[in-house]
Amino acid sequence: MDELQDVQLTEIKPLLNDKEHDIETAFGVVHVTMRGTPKGNRPVILTYHDIGLNHKSCFNAFFNFEDMQEITQHFAVCHVDAPGQQEGAPPFPSGYQYPSMDELAEMLPAVLTHLNLKSFIGIGLGAGAYVLSRCALSHPDLVEGLVLINVDPCAKGWIDWAASKFSGWTTNIVDIVLAHHFGHEELQANLDLIQTYRLHIAQDINQDNLQLFLASYNSRRDLEIERPVLGVNENTAKTLKCPALLVVGDNSPAVEAVVECNSRLDPTKTTLLKMADCGGLPQVVQPGKLTEAFKYFVQGMGYIPYVQLSHLSTESVPAASMTRLMRSRTHSSSSVGSGESVRSRSHTSNHGEGSAGTPEGIDLQDAPQTMEVSC
Question: What is the pLDDT of residues 292-306, one digit of tens each?
């Protein structure tokens, strides 16, 4: 069972080679924590958190998960905290102009330059997923792959803006942020998790700084991406050039936004993972399943020929098989049971249940569709 019984938000396993940096950029100072040493020309894993969180409360459960260690030994990890959101951040001075979402994305090339890094595989949640997507659109040479959890490619509509304005007059910012992360069902059912994050948002994050980050996210532009269509706009469509894994819990308030993003990405480079029995924070509630998916994602990109996960898999899968699967132009209606690993995709064709085969046996469709997987 992957679900965490005790969510650790701020306590991390001490590592001797963790290094913290406050990096000056054209749009202000950004706090970065570097874990591990870059491995040659291999990209780093770069994370970006959502509103109301920092890199610890957003990603500790995921990166401290036992099987994730077997992946991260092959990569250095760069955790980025949005300005003013890191642990112990001081308040901004009066009149401070918080960076726009576009400017937050433009900070990342300066971070890579400062740390002498060439490229990254990004993992972002919510606002962080938007920032990483914007960076990938502006600097495709720096981004080799993206894991986008709860990503919303759309600008905030005027109805949403008016609703948030009204709720801001009647509701405190902690409740607004909780409603951003968790759907109604999860707010009612998972009381321990909700209380843990309620206390964290209220006590560990500077409230004035959080308000500025939230306002910046609510003022975001549409990503203006469109799905490339062969013979129509494949050379002109603005979309992500790198492989992308979209992740959303089936009880998350972000489901519609993620499906919308999926419809606007290149289906030959995109996988949509819907996680059953999971809400707004899949990396916290189901770290094992996300680790399994991330393993095959990096294998599909050609990194680490195989990884043996201690208890989720009984065998290793060659990277070549995942590469063919991830890049196959197929519409998959397969559903992976909650007790099975994402690896089952390599044994399921798009003809439905009971079909056996390998990635080489999957039929290609005339109109490519994104690989969709549920687990």
Answer: 999 999 999 888 765
